[in-house]
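Problem: given the chain below (225 residues), write out its structure.
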Amino acid sequence: MGRAKIPRKSTNIDMTAMCDVAFLLLSFFILATKQKPPEAVTVSAPSSVSTKAAPEKSILITLTKEGKTFLMLGDDTKKKDIIAAVSTAKGLGLSDAEISKISKMPFIGVPLGQLKSLANRAEALPPTQMAGIPAKDSTNNEMVDWIRGITTAYSGSDLSLNDLQQMILLKGDGDALYPDFKNVKYALKKNGLYKFRIVTNSENAPIGSELYKKNKEEAVSGKKE
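Solution.
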C-alpha cells in the first residue's frame, strides 16, 4: 500500500508585527539619542592614548592658538544660576530675560562688559567675531569670575567638589602657548579647583608599551568570556 501524499503548502509569514517593532525601536533611538553640542571653535588638540569618556553635562573651556578662551556650560539646569551669579558678583545688571537668552547660547566668548549687548543682539554673533573671555594675566582674568559663578551655582547641590572637578574639561589647540594655558589653570586654582581633564585626540597605544599589553590582555579576556 502506497504512502499517502501530504499536500505541500507554501509558508506565509506575516511580517507586520516585526515591521512595527522595527519602526518603534528606530523611533526610540532617534528620540533618545543625544546630539553632540556644537563646539565654540574648532581647535586641533594634541593626541594621546587615553580612552576615558568625558562625563555628561561637562563644563568645557576651549583655548585657541591665538589665546582666546571660550566657555561651554553643559548642564542646562545650572546655566541660568551660573550667569545670574556672575551678574550679581560683577554688577552687570542682567535682567531675567537677558540671563535666559544668554543661557540658550551654546557657548560664551565675550568679556563681561559685552554680555548685555550680546543678549540684546537680533542675530547671533559668530565665534570668529568674539574676542574671547579675557584671561591674559592675573589682573584681568575674567575666567576667574566664571569659574567662581560655577562653584557658586553648584555649592547648594549634592555634587561633591571632586565630582565638579571631574566635569571640568580643557580643550586647547596644540599650538596654544603655555602662558595662556597657565592663566586658565590660575582661574581654576583661584576657586579651589585643582583637578581637571584635558581633551585630546585619541590614538592607539604604541606597540610593545605597557598600555598596549594591558589593552591586548583585556581584549583577549573579553573574548574568552
